[in-house]
Amino acid sequence: MTKTKIAHFKTLLDAELVMLVEELSAIATQNKYGDWQASPERQEDGAEADETDQADIIVDFEAKVGKLEVLEKRYNQVVTALERIENGTYGRCLKSGVLIEEDRLEANPAAETCKAMMNLRTS
Q: Taking 70 as the threshold, does the pLDDT of residue 41 lie above it?
């Protein structure tokens, strides 16, 4: 793969990473180990919430946790792809070692496998 193509995919990944960090920061905080943790809605000090308010807080937190799982998984995929760019292994299938098709990388710049290995995994 050419340096120009790699730079193109790096630009796509960098832009997606910024978006993911913004979305994650809206619902979670990152701990010192780099893991994201959903942030529950805080009540005002001294305010005693009724049962409905407490239920709303729990439902909101559960929704954040569900969204967090999806966003964090994608965040980790993007970070890993950027690391592969840095170490020179980007664009190679982690299963077979062949070059990942460019149309696959256009659709998913963080792809780790070629189409053949992707199809094997989903069959």
A: no
What confidence score (pLDDT) does residue 46 get?
A: 47
More confident residue, 32 or 86: 86
Phi, psi of 18 (to 5 degrees): -60, -45
Tokens for 38?
């959903």
Contacts of 111 (CB under 8 A, 6+ apart): 81, 100, 104, 105, 118
* Paired tokens of 66: 């569900």
- Put residue 107 in one of left, alpha, beta given phi > 0 → left and psi -120 to 50 → alpha: alpha
Report pLDDT for 4.
96
> What's the chain's average pLDDT?
85
Q: CA 10, CA 90: separation in Å to the nearest integer?
A: 10
Residue 106: how many CB atoms within 10 A of its CB? 13
- Residue 37: count other Cβ atoms within 10 Å of its Cβ: 14
Spatial contact of 38 and 64, defined as CB atoms under 8 Å apart: yes
Q: Please name the helix (run of DSSP H) or strand (run of DSSP E) that holds residue 83, with its range, or none.
A: helix 51-87
